[in-house]
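Hi everyone, sorry if this is the wrong subforum. Our group has a chain we'd like a structural model of before ordering constructs, and none of us has done structure prediction before. Sequence below.
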Amino acid sequence: MGKDPAGRVQTKSKTVNFNNADFFMVRREAVFMGFIALNWGFSTTKGQPFLRIQDLYVLPQFRKKGIAKLLVDKAIEVARQNNANRLQLNTGTNNESARSLYKTLGFEWFPEKVIYMYFLC
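Answer:
Right subforum, don't worry. Here is the predicted structure as tokens:
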């Protein structure tokens, strides 16, 4: 990932690697500014892997500076390198700032999709 176009942000590439998950952090010198956690799934209907954004977080003092876009761009790069069918995520319906960001970055909203959860703990 290297540096952003303005040369302000250095990223630490894959800091954690699990069998089906990747984790990337953005830092400037020794100050960590944000992270993205990704996990892999497989689409049986498309016959291809897909990449899911599990978490995306930027510290409040670094928001609106392009950090989230830098992290999402990295996720898109990883997805393309691995021939993923799509990059997907979930966010709260009341999280307007996140929803606005994702729309700006080209994500499509699917209001007909519903999530069910079964909690084990």
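For your construct planning: The longest strand covers residues 31-43. The two ends are 37 Å apart (CA to CA).
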